[in-house]
aldehyde dehydrogenase (NAD(+)) (Cryptosporangium minutisporangium), 504 residues
Amino acid sequence: MTPEEFRESARSALKSCGVADSALAGALTVRTPLTGDELLSVHEADGPETDAAVRAAHAAYQQWQTVPAPVRGALVKRLGQLIGEHKDELATLVTLEAGKIRSEALGEVQEMIDVCDFAVGLSRQLYGRTMPSERPGHRLMETWHPLGVVGVISAFNFPVAVWSWNTAIALVCGDAVVWKPSEKTPLTALACTALLDRVIAEHGAPADLHRLVVGGRAVGEALVDSALVPLVSATGSTRMGREVGPRVAARFGRSLLELGGNNAAVVTPSADLDLTTRAVVFAAAGTAGQRCTTLRRLIVHRSVADELLEKLTTAYRKLPIGSPLESGTLVGPLIDENSYRAMNSALDAARADGGEVLVGGGRRDVPGAPDAYYVEPAIVRMPSQTEIVRTETFAPVLYVLGYETLDEAIALHNDVPQGLSSGIFTRDQQEAERFLAADGADCGIVNVNIGTSGAEIGGAFGGEKETGGGRESGSDAWRAYMRRATNTINASGQLLLAQDVSFL
């Protein structure tokens, strides 16, 4: 495709989703990682514009919070239906902006549909509890109430899924949303916002229930510092989280942080190596290594290391690398030059530490895309877990380490600042249970015989340590978007004080 054909494809997808032509004009240039060429330009908001959007969303929240939760769920149900009707167009935008292959782009859109389904059911299950009171004639219970405006700051690598995790749940919880997408992927945000605006109008909900603000640091700071935003959900680097967390806490707000992941898998002597190979290749090379759950460290028992590495290097050499628009491609481009430079720097550091690059690491020329950054996923055998191995590099670099005992493997696994996703490959139940135990893997996501990538929406997503500690999507993650009230109802006709206190 020519640059003009890319632009026309993006315009067509946006128009189908209801984005007006007037939205495609502004100072912020959007480029496609497929070729490095310019796609379109959009308006870039500033701090004052963001403040105005927050105030409008807060006014909408004050109306929305009184709407019954099942009625709020009906709105989200319709959003999921509309996303399904525009699945192809949204996936096209994900590919053009984020560089994902078609199946992964479609999978990300399906994730939005799935979380809408989850949220619809949740709208009738925002349960509190009734607890026994120590005082006769009294009832003790808790109730959950909407929180306010939720600020969502999302990253380029999942330009729509993470927004939906937050927005679908927040809406059924009675909150309003102000969304700051990555400046690298604003077109997908425009499309999703247009669909949600349509649903809001259809249901007669407050027009400013969801606001989109595209921009850079000034927009993010306005959300982080606003007293009208009680919860900021931010996805990005640990460096970003170090700034966001303290600033939100300084005004006694809440933050839900999804930050860096330096994910590892342990391969034991009993592992099914064919299954392990398939799982590792997807987890380490899928999305060109640009997932927060990407497998970055492989900790292999020395008795099976050579056999497994032979399987992995053979598979890596056969990986189809190229344009995500071409059928059969499995590895698309890095998002930009900075990611490419970071990958090269990491490989240089690994070599300096005694690492051996077994396969990959080079830049791949793709016809018609001289300004794009396609790379060959790399496997590096390391003598020890050096500082570069303990550092997350957002590119397809897999470090391989050896071990002798499972305790040694778990110690290596946990000896990094991050704690997002992990896995163990074994056919030994005792080894699996040891890895899942309290003194096993210290991550928020711990898997057995499956890779670190590809979490389902039904489970709470998030990690520990420098990953931030937040939880999004399934399980009871909804509680982050609500406030809890403990209620005591006295029907005794007497004033009875707790703890046998006597006053009057």
